[in-house]
Amino acid sequence: MRCTDMYQNSSSIGIVRARQDAASIFLAKVFNWMALGLGLTGLVAFFAAGSGITAAIVASPLFMMLIIAELGMVFFLSARIDKIQASTASGLFLGYSFLNGLTLSAIFLAYTSTSIAATFFITAGMFGAMAVYGLITKRDLSGFGSFLFMGLVGIIIASVVNIFLKSTGLYWVISLLGVFIFTALTAYDVQKIKTMGEKGILSQGEVAIKKGAIMGALTLYLDFINLFLMLLRFFGGSRN
């Protein structure tokens, strides 16, 4: 009886470790793609602002065209990920990161480089802390998904409305709520990606793994960028 119990315990421990290893491998792929996207965005934004390209883009209809193109790429990638090739998915992700670098370079016209760098490190610290929480917590965060999505939709609607109202008070409320929502989304999304790894995405083949990693990277990339932009409203030093 004791031998049977020991065998069952060791078997259970082995299964748990195998799931943890699978989750770790998949998460590493996701974070590598995310880091690549963020690095590309940062480099493009920095060099575009320094070369004067940003000022020309912002002053022309091209800026809005780039934003529309970015939204189209995100929606297309999310909707067609199961049908497109892995190389197409990776190309779209890198293309989106490049275009986002061009549009984000506009922050260098509004804020000082020092405050942008400081806010980036604050964002990285908050993002990292919530990512670790999402990895180690035993609490199931899936129940918060609907609530966070509703909050995200609310922020988008309120931001559009405030374009016409131009309310300073509403601006700061949106910013504060945005910080809380994207901070929470980081933990939620990391746990969701970890669960994908534990449920066996590594057994589905290289194509499925790469597509899953790219979608996970895009999700976390968007969490990071949006959290950064919300925090920049509080910590960004205005360029007078």
TrEMBL record:
KW Transmembrane helix (keyword) present: yes
GO cellular component: plasma membrane
Location(s), subcellular: Membrane
Similarity section: Belongs to the BI1 family.
Annotated TM spans: 26-49, 55-77, 89-110, 116-136, 143-164, 170-191, 212-235
Lineage: Bacteria, Pseudomonadati, Thermodesulfobacteriota, Desulfobulbia, Desulfobulbales
Record carries keyword Transmembrane helix: yes
Membrane topology: Multi-pass membrane protein
Alphabetical list of InterPro entries matching this protein: Bax_inhibitor_1-related (IPR006214)
Name of the protein: Conserved hypothetical membrane protein, probably cold-shock inducible
Record key words, sorted: Membrane, Transmembrane, Transmembrane helix
